[in-house]
């Protein structure tokens, strides 16, 4: 088998020469390598020796072209020069310039557990009453205090929307929603805030913890928020 392949490789120019000589193909007189030419399809090509035409053999194997359809530019001594299709390299995708703001912000985080306010990048302090529809999600702890670790947005007096990754965490599920305070770290007067136990959670059915798609959930509280 190797001997046959070696023979075919050795006699490839001869076979092509004989085919081009016998076939009724178009001939471009006095053509030289690297001259422009026209393929049988009318496309512009370039005159090349068969050994320098990367398109030729794959095209013949794929029956994209036949020997009779090859356009002969001329000869280099005894070796034919054919019109070769120019192989266009796929475009190179431009690399993104710069770094996303979120990536920069994450690089500033040292990986240690910090207060919630430290995660806000480029924000400004809100005044009381500016964002009454934002609720904090509280998780049970070993003490009577809650751990505030996620946020939510009120869409009706009984329902809030949050991120699905705020449920089923290593802290468990959120158990309460608090509205009416700007500082979750400070002691508050119970009369100034509204705490509502969470009655039901509905996580997007296609959400997966290993992915970032469909990261949304609906929360229903036991009693409506009052405004």
UniProtKB/TrEMBL annotation:
Localisation per UniProt entry: Secreted
Principal place of residence: secreted
Annotated PROSITE patterns: PROKAR_LIPOPROTEIN (PS51257), TRYPSIN_DOM (PS50240), TRYPSIN_HIS (PS00134)
Name of the protein described by the UniProt record: Peptidase S1 domain-containing protein
GO molecular function, one term: serine-type endopeptidase activity
InterPro entries the record matches: CLIP_Serine_Protease (IPR051333), CLIP_sf (IPR038565), Peptidase_S1_PA (IPR009003), Peptidase_S1_PA_chymotrypsin (IPR043504), Peptidase_S1A (IPR001314), Trypsin_dom (IPR001254), TRYPSIN_HIS (IPR018114)
Keyword list, A-Z: Disulfide bond, Glycoprotein, Immunity, Innate immunity, Secreted, Signal
Gene Ontology biological process terms in this record: innate immune response; proteolysis
Domain named Peptidase S1: residues: 120-227
Endpoints of the signal sequence: 1-29
Entry's family note: Belongs to the peptidase S1 family. CLIP subfamily.
GO cellular component entries: extracellular region
Signal in keyword set: yes
Record flagged with keyword Secreted: yes
